[in-house]
Design brief:
The protein has about 425 residues and is mainly beta. The chain is built from two helices and 32 strands. The strands form eight sheets. Strands 3-2-1-32 form a four-stranded antiparallel beta sheet, with no helix packed on it.
Length: about 425
């Protein structure tokens, strides 16, 4: 959540009811079909039509609305609002299960997690956690969830198959964000108030699912985390955690231990243990760390200095800090590892930074106070939750003239987060 989001105050927008009958064809599917019928002489007018989806395909964006205690489901095939889902009080973080057709809403005001069935867009279970949760991380196999509870200085471990809390472990003061390492062996939690990172071993035990193995301090305002696997393709070969120290102008870099039986661990016994590697100077008030899909670099959004910083994960060096716009809040990198999109909270816009060319190539207007952002599954669309105008900006990325605002879809009061889930019916 951006530092200024709590200043937003406006009358809740009246939510649209879900449609009971779909149109004959989804908008994106209809647009593609129409383009196929155009004369060849006109085909150059639309070089990137929307894709055609099979009837079994479904894709939804979910937006948590802190003021209305709801999650809005937006149908990305028909490009319309599908349903408004009542959840707990003050929903904040959203997370998608990578294996199950489920989405999880963290209810900060009611100390719980709502389980949403994506096939029906209805709440099917509510899991109680501890005090004041904001975030949930899901394991790569989709079986466990980890919820930092900032009001009780703990992290809850959830059994997502049985939909219950297994237990919890102590953290530092004010835990906020959790991340699971790609090998599903390590969990890291950033502790904002104590300015630290807690590192846990994930176990198979239901009695003690987490074991605290290390803690690293010296990162005031510790918040956003990116975990990047070691460059070796071998499992259990270690990883690095990059942590935004939001009360400063630094990022903390921590090595997460490699298995003694892995190639990396056998080559260097030093790497068999967690280590603080360094602190890197970036811009003021780094809030988020976004990683390239290939893991070669990470970028920070520096809210206090209107910039982004580029960091090599190979050498642990800041390659540069560049202006991006007013109060950059969130960032995401495309699968091409070349385009970085940033929401400029203070400029009501989103900027696309070309990593290869080292410059801003596009800027698109959004709603008021854009914050969290995500791609559609095919990365044809960029979706941005606007905290100030209670809507979602839908940006088409593959148009003839480059990225452009395609439409605005209503969400609800005070949008906090946005995620996307796609699936085929029956799977």
């Amino acid at each position: 959540m951006s530092p200024e989001q709590n200043e937003v105050s406006q009358e809740e927008r009246r939510l649209l009811p879900p449609r009971t009958e779909p149109p004959a064809l989804p908008l994106r599917r209809w647009a593609a079909g129409l383009l196929l019928l155009l004369p060849l002489a006109l085909s150059s007018c639309s070089r990137s039509p929307f894709p055609v989806y099979p009837a079994s395909y479904h894709e939804f964006a979910y937006v948590s609305n802190g003021e209305s205690n709801t999650v809005t489901a937006l149908d990305l095939v028909y490009l319309r609002q599908d349903r408004v889902i009542q959840v707990g009080r003050q929903p904040t973080g959203l997370t998608v299960n990578p294996v199950r057709n489920e989405v999880y809403a963290v209810n900060t005001g009611s100390d719980s997690v709502s389980v949403i069935d994506a096939t029906t867009n209805r709440v099917v279970s509510t899991i109680g956690v501890q005090r004041t949760p904001y975030f949930l991380a899901v394991s790569p196999d989709g079986t466990r969830g980890y919820v930092p509870n900032s009001g009780s200085n703990t992290v809850s471990v959830l059994d997502l198959e049985r939909r219950r809390q297994l237990g919890f472990a102590s953290t530092g003061d004010g835990p906020g964000v959790a991340m699971v390492a790609p090998d599903n062996q390590t969990l890291v939690v950033s502790n904002r108030i104590s300015g630290s990172l807690s590192v846990y071993t994930i176990t198979d035990s239901r009695e003690r699912p987490l074991e605290l193995r290390n803690s690293f301090s010296g990162c005031p305002g510790a918040t956003g985390i990116a975990v990047v696997a070691d460059s070796s393709s071998e499992p259990d070969s270690g990883a690095k955690a990059f942590v935004a120290c939001s009360a400063t102008h630094q990022v903390m870099v921590v090595w997460l231990s490699a298995s003694p039986t892995s190639w990396r661990g056998r080559q260097d016994p030093f790497l068999q243990h967690d280590h603080l590697l360094c602190f890197l100077d970036v811009g003021d008030t780094p809030t988020q760390v976004a990683a390239m899909p290939n893991g070669d670099e990470v970028f920070t959004t520096n809210f206090g200095s209107d910039s982004i910083s580029e960091i090599s994960t190979w050498t642990n060096e800041v390659l540069g800090t560049y202006p991006i716009g007013s109060k950059p809040a969130s960032a995401i990198i495309g699968n091409d590892n070349a385009s970085l999109w940033v929401s400029n909270f203070g400029a009501d816009s989103a900027a696309m930074y070309s990593i290869d060319d080292g410059r801003v190539e596009s800027s698109v207007r959004t709603g008021e106070r854009p914050d969290r952002l995500t791609f559609s599954s095919d990365q044809q669309l960029l979706l941005i939750a606007d905290a100030g105008s209670s809507d979602v900006a839908v940006i088409r990325l593959q148009g003839k003239n480059g990225p452009a605002l395609f439409t605005m879809l209503p969400s609800g009061g005070h949008a906090n987060d946005i995620v996307v889930k796609s699936f085929h019916a029956g799977t």
